[in-house]
């Protein structure tokens, strides 16, 4: 059973199942539409159907309706949450229309005039597009690879540590950066690499190396950001991997030991192969979000430093800037819509792939 | 080849790697602490160092006199307290309803809650909805409300509620308890671990949020801590706004020091609560995120 079994409810009653597929809410909506609507078109449609069927249908609808109100308290409990989701997550979806409009703040979303695909044209022909999409994908790939390797190494080696207090203390310290806001991380980065004489440069000099002008060297930033990402998030993923490692039965290791395997061999032949399902699921889930740049991270660290844009400007920062600086709502919504649709397609594709491989691990 | 020797070598490598990585994770925190206690002149000359040569608490005494810091601290505290309470309340109710088999609208509701995790209307429509149609700009509600019901955390709770035995609820109802009482008196108390986990997730989210306030808050008096800090990241001079003119610093404004002390003050509560945070986070991650 997957987490979201409510998505597709399997009923024994086949006749009923088409309706159930949309969930009960779907059937209630349908019933409301049919019952409340007196329009001639509907009347005509209904007259085409046989009366007997309609009555049966109506009864079924009323039944599911009535049942919903058998437990009104449960429905009531859900209402505040559903309303906030509707306001903050569903209302903005209506705003995707903006991508096809020339937005005028005073006229609102509906009042602004239609421009067809002009917004997309602007954005598809702009030279920025390629750079921004490439950066988003490359940075995310770099983050996924570096974080996964670091987290695996931490989890596997942490599991080898026998001194309890040392394991606990180091795990705590490694997990700590995850709790820092990206602004704090940006501040740390700025203090280490920025200013008149960056701290890191002092170290480089002491090591006999030459100084680096960090905030002028765009090509270094994918690496710097990856290091920061590992510092910030490797502990988080390590804990997930560690949980997976502790669920591996101890007798496997004991048997290996009796057969004369060393700890390293046990890690290579037992731990890592058994971690592959967890690794692939986590990675696939991250790949599903590969079109989403990490705005909070990148904007907090890079900010409006245009010297670094060639390698660090991602779709999300680009959209934000077009909105706040250029006030170009139409084009930036077009970019946003493109990103949302690509994201949706990718998540669905990844999910159906995961489901084929291992049903339990699929999202839905 | 002696296996026990090899094992020992592997063990040593583990200790060294983990130890070094943990040290590297801790290093930036140490640099900030030491930086906040270093004299400004030394910071300008040498940058931040592991062990300051000159000790000074000016960066803190100046900061404590700053009205802007206090007002932003109060704002952040308000956002976190009100937001977490509201979010926990709303999400727990929704999750309980979604987890209950007697909720006949459950299928549709689950889809409704899940879909926003897949499709995002986009930044611009979101911005326009909140600022133009809901008129929440420059209020703390603009930060609190959009984050009040997060599908991921709701599902974490749904997962937990589903593991509770049905009989518990049924027997209470048969004994004549109203559903409201079943929820408040029985379900909430036995769900404390998951409620604590989710509350901490929400609290951390609110404390660390800066994106919502960046979008919607322009008035300095409504700034949360993170925004004050953000302003100083990109602009060194911005630290000046935190230093009161009557602070009696005639020689040199401790700009670099104040940046560090503000950071320390911002992360202070998180670090103090960290043992608690870590315990529940690890629990939440290992129980809830691994789906059942």
Task: Please name the defining characteristics of this protein.
heterodimer, A: 364 residues, MetI-like fold, two-stranded antiparallel sheet, 2 strands, 71% helix, 1% strand, disordered N terminus, B: MetI-like fold, globular
Give a nutshell description of this structure.
Chain B: It comes from Paenibacillus agaridevorans. By secondary structure, chain A is mainly alpha-helical. In chain A, 36% of the residues are buried.
Give a topology summary.
The complex is a heterodimer of chains A (364) and B (292).
Chain A: H1 14-20, H2 23-36, H3 40-48, H4 51-68, H5 72-94, E1 101-102, H6 108-111, E2 113-114, H7 118-125, H8 127-158, H9 164-175, H10 182-193, H11 199-206, H12 221-246, H13 250-258, H14 263-288, H15 295-302, H16 309-312, H17 315-324, H18 329-357
Antiparallel strand pairs in A: 1-2
Chain B: H1 3-36, H2 40-46, H3 58-64, H4 67-99, H5 106-118, H6 123-133, H7 141-144, H8 151-163, H9 166-174, H10 179-190, H11 192-208, H12 211-216, H13 225-234, H14 255-272, H15 274-288
Helix pairs in contact in B: 1-14, 3-14, 4-8, 4-11, 8-11, 9-10, 11-15, 13-14
Walkthrough of the structure:
The complex is a heterodimer of chains A (364) and B (292). Chain A is built from 18 helices and two strands. Chain A is mainly alpha-helical and 364 residues long. Chain A has two domains: 5-70, no CATH class; 121-361, MetI-like (MetI-like fold), CATH 1.10.3720. Chain A has a two-stranded antiparallel ribbon. The longest helix of chain A is centred in the middle third of the chain and has 32 residues, at 127-158. The radius of gyration of chain A is 27 Å and the shape is flat. In chain A, 36% of the residues are buried. Chain B is an all-alpha fold. Chain B folds into two domains: 3-65 and 243-288, no CATH class; 67-216, MetI-like (MetI-like fold, Orthogonal Bundle), CATH 1.10.3720.10. Chain B contains 15 helices and no strands. The longest helix of chain B has 34 residues, at 3-36. The two termini of chain B are 45 Å apart.
């Amino acid at each position: 059973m997957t987490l979201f079994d409510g998505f597709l409810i399997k009923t024994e009653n086949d006749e009923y199942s088409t309706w159930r597929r949309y969930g009960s809410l779907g059937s209630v909506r349908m019933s409301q539409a049919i019952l409340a609507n007196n329009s001639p078109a509907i009347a005509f449609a209904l007259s085409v159907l046989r009366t007997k069927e309609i009555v049966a249908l109506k009864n079924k609808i009323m039944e599911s309706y009535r049942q919903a109100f058998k437990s009104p308290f449960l429905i009531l409990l859900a209402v505040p949450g559903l309303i906030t989701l509707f306001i903050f997550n569903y209302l903005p979806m209506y705003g995707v229309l903006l991508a096809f409009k020339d937005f005028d703040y005073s006229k609102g979303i509906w009042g602004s005039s239609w421009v067809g695909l002009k917004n997309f044209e602007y954005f598809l022909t702009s030279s920025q597009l390629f750079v921004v999409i490439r950066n988003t994908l490359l940075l995310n790939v770099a983050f996924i690879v570096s974080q996964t390797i670091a987290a695996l190494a931490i989890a596997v080696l942490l599991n080898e540590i026998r001194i309890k207090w040392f394991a606990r203390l180091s795990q705590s310290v490694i997990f700590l950066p995850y709790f820092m806001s990206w602004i704090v991380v940006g501040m740390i980065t700025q203090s280490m690499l920025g200013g008149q004489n960056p701290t890191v440069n002092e170290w480089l000099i002491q090591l006999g190396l030459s100084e680096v002008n960090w905030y002028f060297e765009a090509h270094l930033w994918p690496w710097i950001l990856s290091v920061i990402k590992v510092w910030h998030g490797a502990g988080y993923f390590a804990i997930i991997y560690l949980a997976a490692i502790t669920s591996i039965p101890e007798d496997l290791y004991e048997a290996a030991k009796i057969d004369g395997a060393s700890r390293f061999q046990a890690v290579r032949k037992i731990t890592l192969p058994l971690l592959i399902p967890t690794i692939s699921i986590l990675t696939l889930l991250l790949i599903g979000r590969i079109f989403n740049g990490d705005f909070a991270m990148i904007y907090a660290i890079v900010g409006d430093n245009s010297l670094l844009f060639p390698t660090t400007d991602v779709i999300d920062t680009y959209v934000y800037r077009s909105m706040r600086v250029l006030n170009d709502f139409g084009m930036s919504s077009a970019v946003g819509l493109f990103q949302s649709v690509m994201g949706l397609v990718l998540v669905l594709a990844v999910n159906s792939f995961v489901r084929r491989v291992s049903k339990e691990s699929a999202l839905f | 080849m002696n296996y026990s020797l090899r094992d020992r070598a592997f063990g040593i490598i583990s200790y060294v790697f983990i130890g070094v990585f943990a040290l590297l994770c801790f290093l930036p925190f140490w640099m900030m602490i030491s930086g906040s206690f270093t004299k400004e002149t030394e910071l300008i000359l040498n940058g931040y160092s592991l062990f300051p040569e000159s000790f000074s608490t000016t960066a803190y005494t100046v900061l404590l006199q700053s009205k802007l810091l206090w007002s932003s601290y109060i704002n952040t505290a308000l956002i976190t307290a009100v937001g977490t309470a509201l979010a926990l309340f709303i999400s727990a109710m929704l999750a309980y309803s979604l987890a209950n088999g007697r909720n006949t609208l459950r299928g549709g509701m689950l889809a409704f809650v899940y879909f926003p995790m897949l499709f995002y209307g986009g930044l611009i429509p979101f911005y326009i909805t909140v600022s133009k149609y809901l008129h929440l700009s420059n209020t703390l509600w603009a930060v609190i409300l959009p984050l009040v019901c997060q599908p991921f955390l709701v599902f974490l709770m749904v997962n937990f509620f589903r593991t509770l035995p049905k009989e518990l609820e049924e027997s209470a109802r048969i004994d004549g308890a109203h559903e409201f009482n079943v929820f408040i008196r029985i379900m909430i108390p036995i769900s404390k671990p998951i409620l604590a986990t989710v509350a901490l997730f929400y609290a951390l989210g609110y404390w660390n949020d800066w994106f919502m306030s960046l979008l919607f808050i322009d008035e300095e008096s409504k700034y949360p801590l993170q925004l004050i800090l953000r302003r100083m990241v990109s602009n060194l001079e911005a630290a000046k706004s935190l230093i009161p003119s009557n602070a009696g610093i005639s020689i040199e404004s401790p700009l670099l020091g104040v940046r560090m002390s503000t950071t320390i003050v911002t992360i202070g509560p998180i670090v103090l609560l960290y043992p608690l945070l870590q315990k529940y986070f690890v629990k939440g991650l290992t129980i809830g995120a691994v789906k059942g």
